[in-house]
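hey can u check if this looks right to u? its 232 residues, i copy pasted from the old doc so theres a chance i mangled smth
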Amino acid sequence: MTAAARRTRRRNQVLSREQIIEAAIGLLDAGGESVLTVRALSERLATGSGAISYHVGKRDDLLDAATEMVVTGALATKSGRAGKAPEDEIRVVALALFDAIAEHRWLATRLTLQIVRNPVGPVTVGIFERIGRQLAALGVPQASWFDAASTLVHYILGAISQNARIEGDTSDVEPGAEREEFLGTASAAWRELAPEDYPFMHAIVGQMADHDDREQFLTGIAIVLDGLTHLG
């Protein structure tokens, strides 16, 4: 596109905040946080940096806004039918977040940072509210609601992050490595361990190689929920 064409497009295009954030999400999905710059976003939208700053703010504001848009969309997921048990409602929220991070690999780091840095922001409040509303129906005493909700949120974020590549990871695992390849390599290494020293590892090596991440995630949710119902 020529400079004249870009200027014409800029004059004719009226960008909204939502369009800018969606474009930012596109860049993040394509290359992670390292490729999201105001300059790259300006070029993608054929606009000036001033328009981005006016509607959203600086780069950190873009990252926060992108996180909020994705998480808010995930939290809007409904159970599909009325009258579901509170355990099922919590599973719906947990799986919605699991699937969101599976689709947006950069989100694991940003979501954790949002919870830590912005306890009154829509991401933190939205997750705690959606999960916390189910605790009374589970029979959790009110005095334990904060601890119970925090335990669920910590498990959900921790388990999800384990399945995602975290920004800043300097390990030698290739970002695009196939899951089957990784599990195959790990299980082969476990089988090389001395059975007399690591009997448990040898007992579970086949289960590790064949496990389903979503089913494992739901098993953890079930364990946490079972424990919460015995509080009091």
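The CA atoms of residues 78 and 169 lie 34 Å apart.
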